[in-house]
Amino acid sequence: MEFSSNETENKGFTKIEKFNQETTEELMFHYKKVLELLGEDAEREGLEKTPLRVAKAMQFLTHGYHIKPEEILKSAMFKEEYRQMVIVKDIEVYSMCEHHMLPFVGRAHVAYIPDGTITGLSKIARVVDAFARRLQVQERLTTQIKDCIQDTLKPLGVAVVIEATHMCMSMRGVQKQNSTTTTSDFTGAFEKVATREEFIRLISTKTI
Ligand SMILES: [Zn+2]
């Protein structure tokens, strides 16, 4: 295991400087080929270290494969009788679309209604990051976050909404620069319209 969960403390935005040597060298070899295939001179000064940089960057951007999100939650589970909605909103999402290997960036809003067990609020953000730092589609990312919280904390319900801009749409293809994609998924108590509406209202309110 190259990345322990401690190294992704600080919401996973900590720069990870530990890489698998073998993987890095193999990726460098292939990225150099990619540069050449794109018509570049991979030996020129500006590109000399690019294969190494890309090899490291790509490993960082996909380091979620080495993290078990359910373990993040299990590391901070507390018995608590609070049975109201807990919302963590505006969690930054940085992910990579699996169809084009281009970034999609946005925000996640996560809520759950505990049924005897709560978790640390920062753990929710780390679960989002652990799933986001892989090749993804936004729909699956949304569902994986919901399932992980539902299966681990076993709350009365979970709600996840993600709003994101996809570079594969902004930079290529239809070139709709300002379009955002919204996905949502709910379980349990959030299947009731009133509860879901309360959640939507709370994430839409600007508190600061
Ligand atoms: Zn894409």
Give an overview in words.
With 208 residues, the chain is of the alpha+beta class. The chain has 2 domains: 58 residues, GTP Cyclohydrolase I, Chain A, domain 1; 137 residues, GTP Cyclohydrolase I, domain 2, CATH 3.30.1130.10. Helix content is 38%, strand content 23%. It contains 7 helices and 7 strands. Strands 5-2-3-6-7 form a 5-stranded mixed sheet. A two-stranded antiparallel ribbon has the order 1-4. Helix 1 packs across helix 2 and helix 4 packs across helix 5. It is elongated, with a radius of gyration of 19 Å. The chain starts with 20 loop residues before the first helix and ends with a helix. The N terminus is likely disordered.
